[in-house]
Each structure stands twice: as C-alpha cells, then as structure tokens.
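Late entry, written up from scratch paper. The run itself happened at the end of the previous shift, but nothing got recorded in the book at the time, so transcribing now.
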Amino acid sequence: MKKLKHVAFGILLACAAQWLRAADVKVIANSSVKVTSISADDLKRVFLATKTSLEDGSHVEPVLEKGGAAHTQFLKEYLGKTEAALDMYFRSLVFTGKGAMPKILAGDAEVAAYVAKTKGAIGYVSAGTAVADAKILEVK
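Output as recorded:
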C-alpha cells in the first residue's frame, strides 16, 4: 500500500512539473489572428511550416527566438526538437525548395514587438514578458 502511495505521489509530481514547465512560455499572436486558443498539434505544425493558416482562416507567420530559456523550453515542450534538430529541419526544407527559414529574433522583447506590429505573426516569449500590444493564445 505504501508503495502504491509513493507511485501515485510520483505521478502527481511529474504532472505538476509538466504543467509548470509549459507555463514558463506563453504563445502570443498579432491582434489580426482571430483565434484565442490553438491546439498543441496546430502550434507544432505552424512552427514546422506545414500549416500556414488557422481554423478561422487567419494566415500565420511563425517567429522564433535565437536562443535562451524560452526558446529551449518552447522547442522541447511544443515541437519536440532540440535547437540543432530544428536548424537541420529548416535547412533541409530550404535545400529541397519546400520552405524557407522562419523569422528569427534575438529575444523576448524583439519577438513581442515584432508580433505586435506584424499581421499574422505568432511567436512565444517567457511567461513574465509584457505583451501589451499582442494577444496571448491558450495552447490546448
């Protein structure tokens, strides 16, 4: 019985840790994007350039950060890739003529500013970043 309690507690801790990690990053979009939420699968497809519009017909342009904690967390949680794997993925798209490199900006402030002023832009920033002129999308 004690062992079962330990296992249940471990599962609870793992779930809480997963939720906390996902909360470290927020997904933001330009106000022209009509949706208020996006599925994790659609988010992945947008950032891997296999989807260019959302269910409401909004055209979207993904914006990546060059590096940092938010970038690493976003890649791990939502794309399931390392930075090297993502770079290789986009290089192969460019090399085969099937896509182009996405917009890559230096950090949270630049991403927030770019997303706020660019129609259809969608990006991610650290949870504590102010994004007054962009909207926050809930990831389901």
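The radius of gyration is 17 Å.
(Scratch paper discarded after transcription.)
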